[in-house]
Amino acid sequence: MVIVLKKEIPKYPKIKRDEKISVIIVSYNVVNLLEKCLKSLTYETKLLLDIWVVDNNSGDESVNMVKEKFEQVNLIENKENVGFACAVNKVLKLCDGDYIFFINPDAIIKKNSIEKLVDFLRSNPEAGAVAPKILYPDNSLQLSCRTFPNITTQFLESSYLFKLFPKSRFFGQYFMSWWDHNSLKEIDWASGSALMIKIETLDEVGFLDKEMFMYSEDTDWCYRCWKKGWKIYYLPEANVIHYDAQSAKNSEANRLIQVLESRYHFFRKHGYKNRMYIIKAIVLSGLLGRIIISFLAWLLTFSKERKIVKFENLKNFYQAFLWHFSKKS
């Protein structure tokens, strides 16, 4: 359900100085990027920011860096990695902002972007949340908006047809790759890597689903938001640079399994419990296809360095495939 708005973006009223924005960052082993993220927030001088960093038991110097360089930041140190949703919920119980802004530690907010997001929410009473345009470090577009998952979108994703025909409204429907992302749009859901919500919406919709360790908790929250009658928008005038998946870059197989685990939880929770065998069959078929392609690519590659990469891809898909036959799946 994607609606293109025909109206012009309204002229926003100025932010009230006493309005507080609670910024929530969940960090895990990305000390250098976390520092850049926090520095980018210091440029938002017109705003009253209440910044929270939840460290999920990082093995690097993240905690010490925050303590030494950002004394104004509220820091929560977890004794173990509790995942994204549980970490965010800890802050939601403590913060008192009029608006809540989720941003990943590997993201850099561009100047005045938070102000634009707040202005939009203040000007649009029906809006429960708003997402900025997200860019890769080279300024290319990062597809951060999605339609709600269903059996069709899962097939298109698992079969890689969305990559073969990205500009097709049908094949590109889940990632919305057919759209240039340069216009204001009502969307189904947006990535939690950068998302602002109203406190009134949070009060009505509730916290993130703690059963989702990582991934799909943003999908679930936005779905519950939509069911309550709130709208979610994409605002391209606000920009964020996102390095993407830096906390999970050394464990691609685990990341893939976490994506699937949370996706399956979403499906079970929202009406697909009796059709999980169809969804899992689609995913397994897709993984099997990737295993075969990865094996052939490894077999036909002669460069030692590239052969290592191809083998890692093969191993990751194979581990995700085997996971489906464990009790945890």
Walk me through what this model shows:
It is built from 11 helices and 12 strands. By secondary structure, it is α/β, with parallel strands linked by helices. The protein has 3 domains: 3-143 and 181-242, Spore Coat Polysaccharide Biosynthesis Protein SpsA, Chain A; 149-175, no CATH class; 272-323. It is globular. The protein starts with a strand and ends in a 6-residue tail after the last helix.
Mean residue pLDDT: 91
How big is the Rg? 20 Å
- What is the total tally of β strands? 12
Quaternary class: single chain
Q: How many domains make up the coordinates?
A: 3
Fourth-tier CATH superfamily name of the largest domain: Spore Coat Polysaccharide Biosynthesis Protein SpsA, Chain A
Helix content bin: 25-40%
* Cα distance spanning the termini: 29 Å
Count helical runs.
11
> What top-tier CATH class of the largest domain fits best?
Alpha Beta
How much of the sequence is in beta strands? 15-25%
Corresponding CATH architecture of the largest domain: Alpha-Beta Complex
CATH fold category name of the largest domain: Spore Coat Polysaccharide Biosynthesis Protein SpsA, Chain A
Q: What is the secondary structure topology, with strand pairs?
A:
Layout: E1 3-4, E2 20-27, H1 31-41, E3 48-55, H2 62-69, E4 74-77, H3 84-92, E5 99-103, E6 107-109, H4 113-123, E7 127-135, E8 145-146, H5 151-158, H6 161-164, E9 185-187, E10 189-190, E11 194-198, H7 199-205, H8 217-227, E12 231-242, H9 252-269, H10 276-299, H11 304-323
Parallel strand pairs: 2-3, 2-5, 3-4, 7-12
Antiparallel strand pairs: 1-9, 5-11, 6-12, 7-11, 8-10, 9-12
Helix pairs in contact: 1-2, 5-10, 9-11, 10-11
